[in-house]
Amino acid sequence: MTDDDLPIIDAHHHFWKLGSGHHPWLEGAHDIPFRYGDYSAIKRDYLVDDFRRDHGRHNVVKSVHMEVEWDPSDPVGETRWLHELHDRTGWPHAVIGQAWFARDDIAGVLAGHAAFPLVRSVRQKPAAAPSPDRFVAGAPGSMADPAFRAGYRLLAEHGLHYDLQTPWWHLGEAADLARDFPDTQIILNHTGLPSDRSPAGIDGWREGMERLAAQPNTAVKISGIGVPGQRWTPELQGEVVRETLRIFGAGRCMAASNFPVDSLCASYDEIFTGLKAITADMPQGDRRAFFHDNALRIYQPA
């Protein structure tokens, strides 16, 4: 099998159609603080034809759509829109919805998502400290907050996973969450956000990743690792990718583009050609698991 033939399930990407006010961060008058800086280049419609053009020669056979901060007053509205898109185009093949576990209406939101056949998981980005030295255990909105956990425990009733996006210094709380709710699968987004590539930053990130990986009901998506101002290359990203594969094992890692967001720092081809180069020495079965089989098992795309 050549690299061009290698089947890919893109485990994390986005679609959006602007103009209806559903995406405040993309349509509002004021930008939000963003880890890649200026994101004006993605303030445009991004739909199936755009995604197909971007993935180009790479053999993307299915995809998993991640919620994209749709208007939180109607979190199930995005799920409804995505099912209409799937009915018209066949894409995406699995959906991750928006949910806020401490909200009074969380039971209804989860039931609303679960009523749609493509929904496999939900995401909330728990309250995060801006740096490791400002981390406060159990802060309101964090994974140790009793209100967060009261809503989180409802996931098991619907058989839903939890997609977690948080900086690595919160991964100890994530490990505790995984331990205390062993029947709920946690999928860490964006590789634990290893934005600090200094030796101390990588050491802290590695420790957090190892704590989370010690819980068997966890997995990780290798995505979202762009570094502002630097080209996405195997040389820049190799350590993070290889360490993640070592820590979690090839059976719990998934490849993903985070497109179109990561188009701010790389082309689709740069990301997937880079991931293929970094993993070129892996056994064929492990490589196929990373690019395809793990996402197939975890998300069960239609």
Automatic annotation (TrEMBL):
UniProt keyword Signal present: no
Single Gene Ontology MF annotation: hydrolase activity
Protein's UniProt keywords contain Endoplasmic reticulum: no
Pfam families: Amidohydro_2
SUPFAM superfamilies: Metallo-dependent hydrolases (SSF51556)
Keyword vocabulary terms for this entry: Hydrolase
Amidohydrolase-related domain boundaries: 9-299
The family this protein is said to belong to: Belongs to the metallo-dependent hydrolases superfamily.
Full protein name: Predicted metal-dependent hydrolase, TIM-barrel fold
Species of provenance: Thalassobaculum litoreum DSM 18839
Origin organism lineage: Bacteria, Pseudomonadati, Pseudomonadota, Alphaproteobacteria, Rhodospirillales
